[in-house]
């Protein structure tokens, strides 16, 4: 996962959870947390318990996150965030917990009195993990219209340009899907599988070469042994677990979005 992708993900995460981004600089951001996100991220149970008992005024913390130390100003002090850091892992888990699924409607500005049809879209934010002894994550956002099967990438960015509401707007009605969400998820999964098959898989070939090299060392270490014992099998299995290339597709979050014809 690239540092710029991390920065964009954090922007979406904090906006979606109602936090004010006080500073959004090159390589860093400072965020004023809400009460909910302070409880979610900052591990201050005794503070919040005390406030609830005494009726005190809550004071959620500000959080400064550095997404690119090379570009962030020297005077900025905060947590360095990179893939694999505990804080980023915590935020990934929080996003999964807080926003597993949502249903929203486009709050359009069509002429009053005219009945406007809203078409159902399945929106999914997906993480594709390329794993071996190294790991690379790619985040994708895709929308699938549940009537005609149209697919649109960067769907989340398109949604950010719309006014969305949890309540169906006046003078609107929803169209029934022809593709059920469960079937839609399978379509999206197959779409990404096809994309992955078309990519360059040099990374996997190089991982297998490193795997074979370490396997040869293991065989050399045990070549004088009369009988290869359990420890040999354990080490061999560990090498397979470490090096074997695999691709995982996981859903970060998703939802149903009812949109006008001109929205996408």
Short description:
By secondary structure, the chain is an alpha/beta fold. Helix content is 39%, strand content 28%.
Structural account:
The chain is an alpha/beta fold. It is built from eight helices and eleven strands. It has helices at 3-16, 35-41, 45-54, 86-98, 155-160, 181-198, 202-221, 230-243, and strands spanning 20-25, 28-32, 62-66, 79-80, 101-106, 116-131, 135-145, 151-153, 164-165, 172-174, 246-259. Strands 5, 6, 7, 8, 9, 10 and 11 form a seven-stranded mixed β-sheet that branches. A hairpin with a 3-residue loop joins strand 6 and strand 7 (135-145). Helix 7 runs antiparallel to helix 8 (230-243). The model has no long low-confidence stretch (mean pLDDT 88).
